[in-house]
Amino acid sequence: MPNIDDPLVIAGKTYRSRLLTGTGKYRDMDETRLATEAAGAEIITVAIRRTNIGQNPGEPNLLDVLPPDRYTYLPNTAGCYNVDDAVRTCRLARELLDGHDLVKLEVLGDEKTLYPDVVATLKAAEILIKDGFKVMVYTSDDPIVAKRLEEMGCVAVMPLAGPIGSGLGIQNRYNILEIVQNAQVPILVDAGVGTASDATIAMELGCDGVLMNTAIAQARDPVLMASAMKKAIEAGREAFRAGRMPRKRYASASSPIDGTFF
């Protein structure tokens, strides 16, 4: 169980789990529910342009499977490639979720890599913050951009660790470390995680959490992988708090040998 004395705080709300999960790419709603439960996630993302949360009457509704009184919904702007679409999508989510103002902003710049359009992201973030939204923002691993988004008022900054859906793992650990060490808001790795060890590395770097979808949903056994990710996040956080031993070029004795006889 996560340490209750070490909570994740986003936009003034406290969470015990540092693993945020997506709700797309699963075989069906039942698998979505089982994987979410196995992950122990408290914050779940939903792509408003792809998932029904009430805008399509008569179709399966995610709210019925993962009730909002149990989970914090994080509507995201997945699939948006310009400022207007991203802002419009967030406003639709607020309407559908009865005034819900916590959103994940992503404005994509390339259909092949799904790399963020940083200029458009900055513009959309500014509009949304002025409109009263609490913005968690997906961005590149540029420490300068990350700081700019924080200073604008984003409640969390979410740099990619690798391309979305790639499963390549943490490709940019020094950039991520730089972002973490200079931040006053939560930093969560978003995109690139492929397996449990990747999640652990992100947490050992000092990230406040990890958001993932594909790594769980496209595993051979998504529910089992969700369970593995939960443990990986907890282990990585504990290792970060404990502080690892210094790296050394040579081995040293585990026990002191001064004064012993041979």
Structural overview:
- This protein is an alpha/beta fold and 262 residues long.
- It is built from 9 helices and 10 strands.
- The protein has helices at 29-39, 62-65, 83-96, 118-130, 143-152, 173-181, 196-204, 214-217, 222-242, and strands spanning 8-10, 13-15, 19-22, 43-47, 72-76, 102-105, 134-139, 156-159, 188-190, 209-212.
- It has a 5-stranded parallel β-sheet.
- Helix 1 (29-39) packs parallel to helix 9.
- The mean pLDDT is 92.
Give a quick summary of the entry:
The protein is built from 9 helices and 10 strands. With 262 residues, it is of the alpha/beta class.
Element string (H = helix, E = strand): EEEHEHEHEHEHEHEHEHH
Give the mean pLDDT. 92
Main beta sheet:
5 strands, parallel
Quick one: overall form?
globular
Figure out the total of helices: 9
Low-confidence stretches: none
Spatial sequence of strands, sheet with the most strands: 5-4-3-10-9
Query: What is the strand content?
Result: 15-25%
* End-to-end CA span: 47 Å
Structural class, from helix and strand content? alpha/beta
Query: In angstroms, what is the radius of gyration?
Result: 20 Å
Helix content: 25-40%
Secondary structure tally: strands:
10
Keywords:
262 residues, alpha/beta, five-stranded parallel β-sheet, three-stranded parallel β-sheet, 10 strands, globular
SSE blueprint and pairings:
Blueprint: E1 8-10, E2 13-15, E3 19-22, H1 29-39, E4 43-47, H2 62-65, E5 72-76, H3 83-96, E6 102-105, H4 118-130, E7 134-139, H5 143-152, E8 156-159, H6 173-181, E9 188-190, H7 196-204, E10 209-212, H8 214-217, H9 222-242
Parallel strand pairs: 3-4, 3-10, 4-5, 6-7, 7-8, 9-10
Antiparallel strand pairs: 1-2
Helix pairs in contact: 1-9, 3-4, 4-5, 5-6, 7-9
